[in-house]
Amino acid sequence: MREAGKNIMEYDTVALDEESGEIVIIDQTRLPGRTELIRLKTAQEIWDAIYLLKVRGAPAIGVTAALGLYILCKDLETDDFAEFLEKLRKEKDYLDSSRPTAVNLSWALKRMEAVAVKAGAEGKSVSEVKELLHREALRIREEDIEVCRRIGEYGLELVKPGDGILTHCNAGKLATVKYGTATAPIYLGQEKGYHFRVYADETRPLLQGARLTAYELASSGVDVTLICDNMSASVMSGGLIDAVFVGCDRVAANGDTANKIGTSVVAAVAKLYGVPVYICAPTSTIDLNTPTGADIVIEQRAPEEVTEMWYRERMAPEGVKVYNPAFDVTDHELIAGIVTEYGVARAPYTESLANIIRIGGSSN
Ligand code: MRU
Question: Which of 91, 106, 141, 170 has the most crowded Cβ, counting Cβ within 10 A?
Fold first, then answer.
């Protein structure tokens, strides 16, 4: 439970307890009502926490998977590297199967695997490989802080003090280690006294905007107003919004972007009203192996999330057919810029994204 007087922003979204060898996360399904820290140790617990969105948001999922793979491998009882690698790959594939859309998950796991493969090729012992995996998982977590901060700096150049910013879902601190991606320019602006007016979409069906974004921004003293998902045209036509900042789960090579369901609707409405849409994406979210948005696997989730979750009583008729994709794809033509830790990519994205990946030396 929350310690008395402790602000949600003071908790780690995901951390490693070195002593117990467990991952500690905030159970995000209980927010904002309850701040509960839970501990993950087994592969099943880690898989469930990701699938059930106890930890969620592309970067946070990547960090959890990396820490998870380390804790699952550190107790493997073998001195034989080939056997160790085989078991590591089994755990990796299992964790990777928890959610399909956020590429950060497989990106982080591949990074961990590559460390083991390289160390094995160099003739390192299994215990040395375990220590390298430990360091790599912590590095992935630490890097996220700096990456988000840089996204915030580039994003801040796109807006001015007093601007109205609309965001969808939660691409905030709770989706990362610190700062968030879409919220990073907001938090950095807050430090500089920019006084943004932020509008947070509630984000049906799982309400990440209402439960998480509105909560963390308000807890940080940001001027935030909660709106329903069907109100974006109202606030944009009323001139309240100067820019849209959203996060993303995968950016295809042509700039098409998968993010929380409803993002593409916001982007289409923004186009109509001349409001620029900026996608905030660490390079770990850019997937040059996925040519277009049509190639992105979109997670389908349980019908109950639409028909009964968050309602005191089931609100839809029993047996009704439900369509519940967790993400949609925003066409690159609706996107004014993709804000990364290496700068803002602009159309034509096929060139600018490839260039940014080259600058960053990312493995995607
Ligand atoms: O289903 P979720 O809550 O994991 O979806 C999260 C999003 O869509 C975020 O916008 C995205 O992962 C970016 S988080 C910095």
Answer: 170
- Three-state DSSP class for residue 215: helix
Q: Report yes or no on 2 lying in a domain.
A: no
Structural contact between residues 200 and 217, judged by C-beta atoms closer than 8 angstroms: yes
Find the 123 Cα to ligand 1 centroid distance in Å. 39
CB 52 within 8 A of CB 29: yes
pLDDT tens for each residue of 106-116: 999 999 999 99
For ligand 1, the distance from its centroid to the CA atom of residue 327, given in whole angstroms, is 9
Catalytic residues: 249
User: In terms of pTM, does the model score above 0.85?
Assistant: yes
Residues 182 and 64 in one domain: no
Contacts of residue 331, defined as CB under 8 A and 6 or more positions apart, other chains included, come to: 256, 264, 267, 293
Residue 221 shares a structural domain with residue 250? yes
The partner residues of 259 in beta bridges, in order of sequence, read: 328
The parent domain of residue 58 ranges over: 8-148
